[in-house]
């Protein structure tokens, strides 16, 4: 162990970590605290509890509409990424051929291309081909945004899945299609689900790419929140943000139960 | 090779092509072609978003000679190095402890949650903490450490703290995933050979954890140098980071050719740094290990 086995050293380490994790969680804690605070300004310590801001958030069409749009967008982008990413991840894990390494780098490159470059490029491209800003542009962007996460998650899943099962099916003269839906897909179901959830959360929370692709009538929830943060400090926003924190927290806990976060990250 | 074997190879190649084509076509169409089109736009001589025609390198000349843009690029690079170094120094012990210590499950949850949470939520939380009516001011006022509220937002220092806070989890995760693969026996062996903890740290752990450190630094540098939302909302007009200038040229000034040129310079610096780090760390790190975790 790196740390000494005496009481003071262990205490110092523990304290350092406790502070670090507290600071990591601090912004979320403050937002949740503010969302239940009756006053229109955040005060410390808070006086009283109220759900009024949540009620107002639900009654604000700008938030509910953009929430529904974000859910719709994240769902479609996830389905597209799974459809394209699953076979690709399988091919990249199963075959060792020259050139496949470059294909893998290409498929994972959206992770390292700065969002602002991708966003501007896509905005210019959508103007060029005439679809402009809006839902179609957002869909293209979120598809390529989520694809690398699906590919990466599934590559590690396929590497754990025993190829002997496929060979057994093959020797029984199962066609490739049958092998896919009777052998491969059922065996990687937990991986598929966690890839889907990661993809969904990535798309749902994105603001850096979406901000270039939204049109006046189609704002995603994070973009709507961006506009609100810029213009006001309304506690309704704290309720919306808390809601996003709860959803994301539940989803991350869900992945942990389903596939084990430790194995994925 | 017999004819039968050739036929199998053909069938396999066609199958492979079918598996890979949708994903490769998508990335080519949605990423490669738009970036190529961005390169073309940056070479139009005009200063607007319409009637673009002709070829010229005038925007690159301006971006690489005008003091405003050069200074912003230099500052942004320095800020990014500070954030990268700071998060690496904090992230290493945290990542190490998350790999070896107790309560791993909860630690990982609290590392992954901020990463999956929308960036905008994190920024909003920081505004509530640092703003004039924010938490920090109320605490300091109630403890009589301040007489009247102080504005903590809109400064370079604050922007760097928020950037570091936002991207620290990447460093922790990268270190954690490599330290988990280091056999604890190696550290015990070093200790039993009378290496003190510093020797063990510098000669055993750091070299073995290097790929993770390099991967974490690469991703944090790329994210910081291209950050525009945090500088805009936390820094305001006083912090002109490079990506903010890009955003303004594209979305407010609508000088698309110049904005495109700036964005491509940003891309080259970001990926150039990644390549440099990879070269410095030997073959065991860099871009590929970032994306192929």
Walk me through this protein's architecture.
The complex is a heterodimer of chains A (265) and B (293). Chain A has 265 residues and is mostly helical. Chain A has helices at 7-35, 52-58, 61-94, 100-108, 115-129, 135-160, 163-171, 176-187, 189-205, 210-213, 221-231, 235-259, 261-264. Chain A is globular, with a radius of gyration of 23 Å. Chain B is mostly helical and 293 residues long. Chain B has 2 domains: 1-42; 57-290, MetI-like fold (Orthogonal Bundle). Chain B is 76% helix and 0% strand. Chain B is flat. Mean pLDDT of chain B is 83; it is low at 284-288. The chains are: A mainly alpha (265), B mainly alpha (293). Chains A and B meet through helix 1, helix 3, helix 4, helix 5 and helix 6 of A and helix 1, helix 3, helix 4, helix 5 and helix 6 of B.
- The CATH homologous superfamily of the largest domain in chain B is termed MetI-like
Q: Quickly give the structural class of chain B.
A: mainly alpha
- Terminal-residue CA separation of chain A: 23 Å
Question: What spatial form of chain B do the alpha-carbon principal axes imply?
Answer: flat
Q: For this structure, what is the CATH class of chain A?
A: Mainly Alpha
Count of individual beta strands of chain A: 0
Helix content of chain A: over 70%
Largest interface, chains and sizes = A-B, 97 and 100 residues
CATH H level of chain A: which superfamily?
MetI-like
Number of helices of chain A: 13
Percent of sequence in beta strands of chain A: under 5%
